[in-house]
Amino acid sequence: MANDPEGFFYFSVMNDLEFTDDMDSPAIGIFRGNIDFNNHSLSGLSFALINNKLSDLQRKYMVYNAAYGLIDNFLEGTISNLEYRPDGLVMFAFMTHHYNSVLYNNGVQNSTQTVTFRNVDAYGDFNEPNNNNTSCYVSQVFQGYTIFEDCTNYASQTTAYGGAFVGGYPWGQFDDGSYSYVTFENCVNYGDITGERAAVFIGSHNTISRLSNVTKPIIKVTNCANYGTIQGSYGVGYYFPVANGKANPADYKWFDMSTDSTNTGNDAEHIILLANPTNVTVKTNEDEAFSISNNNTSYSSFMIQGSTYSTTTNPEGTIRIYVSQEDIACTSGSTVTSAIRKLQIIDSMNQSIDSIALNTVRTDAYGNQLITVGNVDYYYNDSSTIGGVVGGSALVADLTWTLTCYDADGFIVGQMDIE
Asked: In degrees rounded to 5, what are phi and psi of residue 352?
């Protein structure tokens, strides 16, 4: 009944609800309506509850957290008076406003439709470093108006990137020329949000690039506060993550500056331990292999990783693709050449490799797949769902390379980009 995208339903929850491992997720695929939980709790949702539409690759990389939570597509309505206690970092709603039909993706082209979270409190402590667009509330806001009122997040998370309230970002334009809109009013965060990129309200680092053409304010934060610790190694922010320093919301036309002064609490910070390393250099040789020269007694081993983010087509989302070599021993005063190479990555959907037999794909000692196309070596991503690299449509992409430094006890003590 509730899976009817045309209906509008009203539910009143009279008892605490607990999911078990044998229950499928999402319980509701498409929903338009109001659910008043009457201050009861919802618990038990975990990564064991995987939506059957996901491919093995998407399960592996946990696209948009993979487990969709209670509702897959929340089109319109209100969730109120809820104590949300998932067992895993599973957002309550995978997407607000976006409806995936059986045959095609159809955005809800109606700027008057609103999804509201009112008096919804989230709890938990989640360490899931490979996940992105993470939040206990909403992963993405797509073509609609989403409101958070009187919500308090107590949940802490360590992920690739995410936010306390919206893990991704608002995007999508309506037929009348307006854009998706998200507001936060009287909301408080007590959770610690940690990752490569992290923020309180909007968690995705793609926010700035995706909204670059938006000339009117579509994000509004009023009378909110943060008392958690927000730490990011590559991007961090109170409102949204930025690469360096403190974000100035006034620099972005899509942020509503009229309410900035009403927000209080702790500022966000870059993780101090992940400042640029000193007395260590990385170069490539004629084979494009990385070579590490270490003259810092604090560093004992290293990891080299190359990564990029790509779009997926079923379901629509984002996937993190990476190659790496860990535990590269290199004590002070020594130089070590790694087995990882500064190559581009090519996807299996690229037409230039259609005629190449799969037995030409080889795997190195660290589990990274390689392929040679026209005498050029590439790292290889075997996926049928990639639609293109984020920010473009190419299926051949440069990787962003980073060096992570470890001390003798295995703790991270430095991290830097490799040019």
From this structure: -70, -10
The alpha carbon of 151 is separated from its chain's Cα centroid by a whole number of angstroms, namely: 21
Which residue type does 346 have?
Answer: I
Are the CB atoms for 106 and 62 separated by under 8 Å? no
Pairing of strands 145-149, 181-185: parallel
Handedness of CA 80, 159, 245, 271 (dihedral sign): positive
> Radius of gyration of the chain from Cα atoms?
22
Other CB atoms within 10 Å distance of the CB of residue 21: 9
Q: Give the long-range contacts of residues 367-372, CB within 8 A, separation 24 or more.
A: 368/323, 368/324, 368/340, 370/343, 371/346
Please check whether residue 314 is in contact with residue 385, taking contact to mean a CB–CB distance below 8 angstroms: yes
What whole-number distance in Å separates Cα of residue 53 and Cα of residue 100? 11
> Which domains occur in the chain, in start order?
9-270 (2.160.20), 274-418 (no CATH)
Nearest to 418 by CA among 341, 310, 364: 341
The answer to whether residues 44 and 87 touch, using CB atoms and an 8 Å cutoff, is yes
Query: Quick one: CA dihedral 35, 124, 202, 94, positive or negative?
Result: negative
Q: How far apart are CA 115 and CA 283, in angstroms?
A: 50
Degrees (nearest 5) of the Cα angle 136, 389, 72? 30
Quick: pLDDT tens for 194-248: 887 889 999 887 777 778 778 888 899 999 988 888 887 777 888 888 765 555 6
Residue 247: what residue type? A
d(CA 35, CA 258): 32
Distance CA 161, CA 233 (A): 10
**Which amino acid belongs to residue 219?**
I
Task: Give the confidence band of 154 by pLDDT, cuts at 50, 70, 90.
Answer: very high
pLDDT tens sequence across 50-69: 333 334 433 333 333 333 45
